[in-house]
Each structure stands twice: as C-alpha cells, then as structure tokens.
Write a structure and sequence with these properties.
It contains 15 helices and 18 strands. The protein has 449 residues and is an alpha/beta fold. Helix 1 (13-24) packs across helix 3 (112-121).
Length: 449
C-alpha cells in the first residue's frame, strides 16, 4: 500500500481536498492523507520525493464568491512533456503546462488542481449569460469547445500522469481499480411513432413536403400497415433490438423513460398507457436498466421531478436509480441536489448537446461538487460522452460518423473510462437516420469492452 501525505493551505482547503481525492481515487493500493501548512502551494510527500503544485488561481481568488465574480483563465495553453522516458499531452487553464525536474522533486509550474476543479465542478456555468434557447449553458461557451479540445479528457490525462509519476517513484506498477466499459443508453422520447391513428398523415406530410422524399413516404405507409397488425412493428419500437445489440457486445443497456402526462409541457406519451407499461415491464425483466428521463421543466422544479419519478416507479418492476434529463437541461448545482434529495444514485446529463466529447474533462464516474454549499455530493455523475444527434452535426456522412465515434471510444478505452453513448430508440428506422443506424452493429462491435 502506498501512503501519500498531502499538505495544503487552509484557503480553499475543501475544494483542494475534493480535487485531490478525485484524482487519486481510481488507483489500487494508493491512500492519501491531508495536513495543513502555511505555504500557498500544495505539496505531496511520496517516499523520498516531493511533488510541488503551484497555487496561482487559488491564491488570487476569493473563497466566498469565486463562482459569482469568477477570475477565469486568460488563455488556455497546451504542451507535450517528456517525463521519465514517456510523453504526456497536457492542457492548462492557468499557466504554461511545464513540470520542472529537480533532485527528488517535481515542480508543476501550472495550476493543475485549479484546472481540474473548474472542469469537474462546472462552476464556470453558474453566472454565464446568455443561455441558449432551452436555458442551457451553451456548448460554444465551454472553454474546451472554444479551444477545440473537447475530444481530450483533460482530467484523465492528469490522472495518467500522476500514475506514471508514482510508478517511477516507487518502482512498481500501479493499476487502476476499474476497467473500460461501454454504456449503450437510450432516452425514450417516443415509444411509438404511430401512437394515434392520425399520426401517419402528419408524418407523410413531413416526408413529402419537408424531406421531399416519396421513398420515405412509401416506407412510412408500409410501417403503418405493419403497425396495425402488431404494435411491435412500430418503427420506434426498437427496444428488443437495442437490448440484444448491447448484450451481444457486452455493453451495459439502459432505457430512460419520460414519465409525462397529457397537458404537461412537451408532452410526448402517457407513461401509464397500458402498452407503454408493458414495454417498461418487459424491459425490466431483462438485465438492462430502466432509468428516469425527467421532463422539460423538471430540471428546475423539484415537485414536478418527484411526481414524475413516482409515476415511473409505480409502473416499473425495477428500482429506479439513474437517468438523464430531457434535452440535457440541467442547472448546476441545483438540479443535482434534486437528484440527491430523491435518493437517486447516478445522473448522466453532463454531456454536450451540440458536440461530442468531455464536458467535465473526464470519462470516469465521479462525485460532483456543490460549489455553493462547498460539499461533495454522494450522487455519481457518469458523464455523457457521445450523443448520436450531436455527432451527426459534426460529421458529413455515415463513414465519418462511424469512424469519429469509434475513435472517441478508443480514447476512453485508453484511459480505462466509461464510454457513454446515447442513441434514441426512435432514430433507427426513421428515414433521416436509417443509413447511420445500419452501422450500429459494426460500431458496437468495435467499441465493445
């Protein structure tokens, strides 16, 4: 067992402990302990080595209102360093990413801990204005998007660097306490495409007037006739197909249902409709996850959130423990407090809505930080890495789409992370998606653990 003594200044001690605990918690046989000292820097004592972290941002910022009057980075700097015969790419929001080697001492000349804290806590989102049309923090305001670095899990790069340093100091291999996993998840915004008899006319008009495709209209009518015979022929009824696809490739399978009722904002389907209940219960009997997909307004309305959670719990044979917000609407830290108050275990809402990549800078599940109350939440965030809708916006054709998705999963696998893929169940047979969805078996095989 490796024991590390970490000395920190009392200023921002809570936040520094949070970051350091997160960075070191993914290693087997590594324990950390904290002490306070009067130096601004953070110092780690590892055997006969000293690891020295500068504290530029922490020293300049005010503990009470850093997220209200933020002292954000002036620039983002990247570098590739060579340390103990290995190359490491680094990103820093606070100072040039340089590490100085001295006798039995390493000096981080950039504020690694502040950069990691900003990404993990997402405190930069608190005061941002203007929000997008759905009152979300805009992707294009994210520092990693602005600097074309969203494809890099910056915090994982730090963790890998620290692992390498400890291996050099102690002359032994250090293992992660986890392995790469793939989560194939589905936000169920639509259970049946032809939920009403007149829906076919609306969809046919869309095929002919918007998509200008007689072929799509013909396919729509064919699906409608099949649906009359058996509701499982509905083009949005892809649940068994998606489940089997995940199972075949040893991926985790999860379906997040929207527990709406007629008359509510952005109503999609009635959660207590008999056929919907049948779908939920059939899936619950398999070894997949039934999850919660809170509605459009529920992200900021704890009463609506609780009401919808009770509806889903009432019709499901499964224990509801995880989910993701509709439209990825989330207000930090308020929304996550609602999740925790309702004793849910895992949220997976923190991903980009227009891009793919690492909104929190990490592909490991982690405990979010409530920067207003200065506490670590018990809730686990499993960040969304790739949504099919966002990936399609970034690519020009199915070939590029497939390759970019696989490449991103390889990055996650390299760091032993969790690749969380969102693919909506209604984007399989839809004319707009069919050429992309045909690639799914090949994609899942390529990204499987």
């Amino acid at each position: 067992m490796i024991h590390l003594k970490i000395s920190i200044h009392p200023k921002f001690a809570i936040e520094k402990k949070y970051v350091l605990t997160t960075l070191f918690q993914y290693f087997k046989d590594v324990k950390i302990g904290f002490a306070e000292h009067d130096k601004a820097e953070t110092i780690i004592e590892a055997d006969n080595y000293i690891i020295h972290f500068t504290a530029d941002w922490w020293d300049k910022s005010d503990e009470k209102d850093y997220y209200i009057n933020p002292q954000l980075q002036e620039s983002v700097e990247t570098n590739e360093i060579s340390l103990f015969k290995k190359q490491f790419p680094l990103v820093s929001f606070y100072g040039k990413p340089i590490i100085e080697e001295q006798e039995n001492k390493l000096c981080f000349k950039f504020d690694l801990l502040a950069t990691a804290f900003q990404l993990l806590s997402r405190w930069e989102e608190k005061q941002y204005s203007p929000l997008d049309d759905h009152d979300r923090f805009p992707d294009n305001a994210h520092i990693l998007i602005q600097h074309e670095l969203a494809h890099r899990p910056v915090v994982n790069e730090y963790i890998a660097l620290l692992k390498h340093i400890l291996e050099h100091i102690y002359d032994k291999k250090i293992s992660y306490n986890r392995k790469y996993q793939c989560y194939f998840t589905h936000d169920v915004d639509e259970v049946f495409r032809f939920d009403k008899w007149y829906a076919v006319f609306r969809i046919l008009l869309g095929d002919l007037l918007l998509r200008k495709s007689f072929r799509a209209a013909k396919q729509t009518f064919k699906h409608y006739l099949l649906r009359i015979k058996d509701y499982k022929n509905d083009p949005s009824y892809t649940f068994e197909y998606l489940y089997e696809l995940a199972k075949t490739n040893q991926c985790h399978s999860a379906f997040y249902f929207l527990p709406g009722k007629k008359g509510e904002v952005d109503y999609r389907y009635c959660i207590d409709q008999p056929k919907v209940i049948e779908v939920v219960q059939n899936l619950a009997r398999k070894d997949c996850v039934i999850g919660f997909h809170p509605s459009y307004e529920a992200y900021n309305d704890k009463h609506q959130f609780e009401k919808e959670l009770q509806r889903l719990t009432g019709i499901s044979d499964a224990v509801i423990q995880e989910g993701r917000h509709h439209y990825l609407r989330i207000k930090l830290p308020d929304t996550l407090r609602i999740w925790e108050a309702n004793e849910l275990k895992i949220d997976s809402s923190l991903g980009f809505n227009q891009h793919i990549g690492f909104r929190c800078g990490i592909c490991f599940p982690f405990n979010p930080f409530d920067y207003e109350k200065r506490t670590t939440l018990q809730l686990i965030e499993r960040p969304l890495i790739c949504m099919e809708v966002a990936l399609r916006r970034e690519t020009e054709n199915p070939d590029e789409f497939e390759q970019k998705l696989i490449d991103l999963a390889k990055v996650v696998a390299h760091y032993h992370g969790d690749f969380v893929l969102l693919w909506h169940n209604n984007n399989i047979h839809h004319p707009y998606w069919i050429k992309y969805a045909q690639r799914l078996p090949k994609i899942l095989k390529a990204i499987a653990p």
